[in-house]
Amino acid sequence: MDKHESANKLLAALKTGTPEAFDAVASALAPNVFMMAPVRGEATGPQAVIQNLEAAHLEGVAEWEGPTEEPRGVRITAKTPGGQFPGMTWLMTFDPQGQIAQVLESRLRAAPSKPDPLRITEAMATAVNGAMDNGTPIVLGYVNEEGQPRLSFRGTTQAYSEDQLAVWARYEDAGLPTAIQKNPHVSVVYYARGSGNLIFEGRAHVDSNPTVRDHVFDHSPVVEQRADPERRGVAIIIDVDKVTGRLGGERVNMARRA
What we know:
Structural class: alpha+beta
Largest sheet: 9 strands, mixed
Number of helices: 7
Shape: elongated
Strand content: 35-45%
CATH superfamily of the largest domain: Electron Transport, Fmn-binding Protein, Chain A
Order of helices and strands: HHEEHEEEEEHEEEEHEEHHEE
CATH topology of the largest domain: Pnp Oxidase, Chain A
Radius of gyration: 25 Å
CATH class of the largest domain: Mainly Beta
Number of domains: 2
């Protein structure tokens, strides 16, 4: 059996999805065949790989491409326009006998879409405001005074308005408060496995207004308030320019209008 025959057997199984077609794939797989899929994970051995492929559940395929030979192996592609992803692709490599030694499954990259108007929704605000209590503290990225990138956990991160986040910083004359005077650009990352991820990009500044200070401090988790009982810190407001990610199974792509 050569590699093209093996690849065509896999293509037939993916296209038809019938038990008979997947049974026929077994002879095309090397004894120690390995597969990796984005969601379903890894599989080793013919039976495990076949089960992994059967679980792909391809729907709405409008066009199949391949098997196509390329420098890294032989590729099969299924295009599914209108779906969550525009398609899937499988890259195969082979052993000297022409059997499939490895199958790497990946999603096709979606074309860039026009961002929606920026608005921090109630669901986004709930995720951000509850991150500390949920054990998923938010990470903030900024550039320090020496021009070096820095990451820090920020348990006080909170939604302040429909286009702003806020952070309470305990030290006015060090770290983030001094860094943003030179470079205000920051990124804020929220990640909770199984529920979503959000990346906020924007410009930060210290707000000395007593009302703003009280609001940001009072809306910080109690454990963070206890770390600064005299309220010696400062309120930092982040004007959000862009939000991307996924939340509640929905894609998020927003940008501030010029």
